[in-house]
Amino acid sequence: MSSKDQKNLAQVIDKIAKMDEPRRSIVQHVHTVIMAAAPELKPRIWYGMPAYALSASTPALVTLRNDDRLNLAITEKVPFRSAGGVDGLLMPAAWFFETVDADTERRITEIVRSVVD
Domain of life of the organism in this record (predicted)? Predict the structure, then answer.
């Protein structure tokens, strides 16, 4: 891991550490899920949010927001695909959550893997 990657990771860990509980633990868990799902992604701060990119110098692909609700989002830098089915041409790009159970963890893993495939 390059020193820039280490610095960026430290900034993400620090950003998460400054969150209030219970969100801090939830976002830390999601960070761990993201890193396990796509270890090639590099954590960094993107517009003040924990985010994940292919390198320290490329745009973020996935972000974690801590606003009124927690939000996992893929950025406009990811090729979007229509959802199909009842969602037709809608393109999923953001998911709100309040906690992470096993089903949510599996879905986060699928979403993250879809941006690097």
Answer: Bacteria
* Cβ proximity of 43 and 50 under 8 Å: yes
- Residue 45 CA to residue 53 CA, distance in Å, equals 10
> Which pLDDT does position 1 carry in this prediction?
61
Instruction: Quote the pTM value.
Output: 0.90
CB-based contact 58:43 (threshold 8 Å): no
38: helix, strand or coil: coil
Model pLDDT for residues 24-60, shown as the tens digit of each residue: 999 999 999 999 999 999 999 999 999 999 998 889 9
User: In CATH, what number is assigned to the domain containing residue 18?
Assistant: 3.90.1150
